[in-house]
Amino acid sequence: MPVDPFLRSVEDSFRRHGIPAVLDPDGIAREVMLLPARPDGIAEFGDMRIQSETGLFEILSAAFAGHGKGAILALVGERRRVQHARVRDPRRYKTQLDTIAV
Predict the structure, then answer these.
(1) Which GO biological process annotations does it have (predicted)?
(2) pTM, to two decimals
(3) In the beta sheet, which residues pair with residue 43?
(4) Are 21 and 75 in contact (CB under 8 A)?
(5) Residue 64 parent element (H or E)
(6) Does the first or last residue of the chain, that is N or C, have fewer Cβ atoms within 10 Å of its Cβ?
(7) pLDDT in tens, 32-87
(8) 80: burial class by Cβ within 10 Å (0-12, 13-18, 19+)?
(9) Strands 78-86, 94-101: parallel, antiparallel or unpaired by DSSP?
(10) Residues 33-67, buried b or exposed e (16+ Cβ, 10 A)?
């Protein structure tokens, strides 16, 4: 079966622009690449600013297969726990991870 050119393009984007991380769901560390989707959110209410600890990252669905809520990511000296994983990519090549610092 020929390689899907869209999948090859997505994989190339992760290879070129991704941030190296370690996925460690159950003590079995595995190197992966992540694309930041959105940094921690900051909400303003008048003079008060509240920073959310949520960080969104995209990962290749194949790299996250079999993992889910509670998986730990180590990136740039920080550990983050996956709160929720969702697939918004119509071709299902990428999974978006909603994470929180641990």
Answers:
(1) virion assembly
(2) 0.82
(3) 50
(4) yes
(5) helix 61-64
(6) N
(7) 999 998 655 666 777 776 666 778 999 999 999 888 899 999 998 899 999 999 99
(8) buried
(9) antiparallel
(10) bbbeeeeeeeeeeeeeeeeeebbbbbbbbebbeeb
